[in-house]
Amino acid sequence: MTLLIKTDIDRGNAWAEALAANFPELKTVNWPFDGDPAEIDYALVWQPPKGELKRYPNLKAIFSVGAGIDHLASDPDLPRGIPVVRMVEPGLTAGMSEYVVLAVLNHHRFMLDYAAQRRAKLWEEIPQVPAEARQVGVLGLGVLGRDALEKLKPFGFRLAGWSRTPKSITGVTCFHGSGGLEEFLAETDILVCLLPLTAETTGILNAGTFAKLPAGAAVINVGRGGQLVERDLLAALDSGQIGGATLDVFQKEPLPEDHPFWEHPRVFMTPHVASMTVPQTAVRAIVANIQRLEAGESLQHVVDLKRGY
Ligand code: NAP
Ligand code: GLV
Description:
32% of the residues lie in helices and 17% in strands. It is an alpha/beta fold. The model has no long low-confidence stretch (mean pLDDT 97). The structure holds NADP nicotinamide-adenine-dinucleotide phosphate and glyoxylic acid. NADP nicotinamide-adenine-dinucleotide phosphate (NAP) binds at residues 66-68, 96, 140-145, 162-165, 194-198, 200-201, 222-224, 248-249, 272, 274-275, 309.
């Protein structure tokens, strides 16, 4: 059994070491691989070159290093009929919830305003708003969206969520489908995007969406850069319709040096690190899944490529 690893160099070595420690029977090879393509049974990949995966005639499964599989679904030559598995593992989920809680509290407690005041050496109190007076709305009620909402519960915010299909979550007002979006947005003071990038979610954070939020709402995008129409956000920040944003993902990554987000006083940003897959812990999910398949059982967390997530 051989697994091909294609991530960045450091993480590639970390994966090879973690796999060797947890699954010694599995041979790993790093990309670029110049051996016999027929030798490869599994691929563990992040942003492989388009067309790369069709080179391996005996692939049994493709594992995405990340939760998102848009880097695979966007490959027109992705081999059909080979299961694509997204990353679901407790470390990645916990990391995202930490980031979402941090970002929500940042906006809730006016940290962008205090940062501006600090730059101006201004010592001024902004009246505190009780958590129960704010609604946090999460777009995407999957593994990550649901966990983030659970972790937000103790703070006392009003919580809402939006998904494609109906959901019922204790303590969370759930909306679904295009019909439920407007009502969801109307009461959402802090909007968190945790959607996968698909044809339907591309550009969902746009001027029309911002206009439906209460004036001064905050936007936190930790889904994918393709979901945000960046010029619409800049216009909404300038008009005050959006009071502040936390952005972890961008249309173009790395963010170009001349991009207005770098200097924008109402934008807090990070370089696509909201949650990172850590090989030492995430390896367990890969090993368990390969062992399942080799034992004749079905793989877990296989994506539906037609749906796009
Ligand atoms: P998931 O478990 O597959 O959940 C996706 C959720 O989005 C589901 O609730 C789904 O609705 C909803 N959804 C999909 N298309 C929709 C649509 N058209 N309208 C309404 N709802 C829709 O995914 P996940 O594991 O939570 O991950 C979510 C995304 O987070 C990933 O795809 C990735 O892009 C992003 N991510 C970012 C980072 C980072 O560091 N920035 C790290 C990890 C993940 P249903 O429940 O009805 O199917
Ligand atoms: C990171 O962006 C992921 O999809 O896990």
